[in-house]
Amino acid sequence: MREIPNRDLRTKAIVLKRTNYGEADRILNLLTPEGKMSALARSVRKEKSRLAGGIEMFCLSEVVLHKGKSDMATLTSAKMLEFYRGILTDLDIMEIASDILKKASHAADLAGDGEYFSLVQQCLKALSDISSSDLSADANATKNAKIELVQAWFCFNLAKNKGEQMNLLYDVDGEKLKKDQKYTWDSTEAALRPAERGKIGANEIKMMRLMLAADLPLILRVAGAEEMAGEILYIAKAINQF
Fold it and tell me: Where among 68, 83, 98 does a domain terminate?
């Protein structure tokens, strides 16, 4: 958990967890560009609290944290910048978003910087947009595939930030990956294995490489990405055991 570097810190934040404390307070776990931080929101559970609207789950906020003599900072200001309301309208998406917060929270405990903030923000926005999209019943498969792409992108980059990036240059035998070769995922070796009936080919490998190099909005715009989503997500989950 990162300590507040200055007496007062103004920063962007995403609430990872809220815990009721005392009669009206809450202890917050926040993910910020500076890292994961904890803060006490005093009287936030009272009806007229001016802080309550800025510390909702699944939103991006601007907060001011004051570091006094105690170990825990105090939240003195909270303003909602963007509310990812679409997440709350779909139970499956809300569960995925919650899992992303939990995974990022655990990873941020192990890393001192704020490298996970952008990952989480991009995922929450994308999931909200997908949920809010006006899709017909026939387009439900496309919606599900886009959700899988979000999950896969998060898993690959989570692993990358933790130093667990998979090898997308060589197979299990140390041979350079070939364009005309099909592969399957070898969970024991944590690498791709040549297989005549494998479902991982040149396009899937290119897509996984792109996921490690590009932001999520670009990934979701790649033509044909939805058709590869299922196979890529399988590998991404195996790496992180998501």
Answer: 83
Q: Are 240 and 159 in contact (CB under 8 A)?
A: yes
User: Going by C-beta distance under 8 Å and a sequence separation of 6 or more, which residues neighbour residue 127?
Assistant: 84, 86, 87, 93, 96, 97, 147, 150
Backbone angles phi, psi at 72, to 5 degrees: -100, 135
Secondary structure E strands in 84-238 = 183-186, 191-194
147, 66: one domain: no
Question: 7: number of CA atoms within 13 Å, CB side?
Answer: 2
Which two three-digit tokens encode residue 222? 């790649």
Residue 11: phi, psi to the nearest 5? -155, 170
* Residue 136: pLDDT over 60: no
Structure tokens at 235: 């590998």
Q: How confident is the model over 117-131, as pLDDT tens digits?
A: 999 999 999 999 999
pLDDT of amino acid 165: 75
| 26 within a domain of the structure (yes/no) | yes
Is residue 1, in this structure, part of any structural domain at all? no
For the segment 69-98, what is each residue's pLDDT rounded down to a tens digit?
A: 777 899 999 999 999 999 999 999 999 999
Cα distances (angstroms) measured from residue 106 to each of 31, 66, 72, 90, 204? 11, 24, 19, 25, 29
List the CATH number of the domain containing 152.
1.20.1440
Q: Are 200 and 192 in contact (CB under 8 A)?
A: yes
Write out the two tokens for 195: 């297989």
Structure tokens that stand for 234 in this block: 């399988």
pTM here is: 0.91
**DSSP state at residue 72:** S
Residue 178 is part of which domain span?
Answer: 85-240
Extract the tokens encoding 74.
């105090």
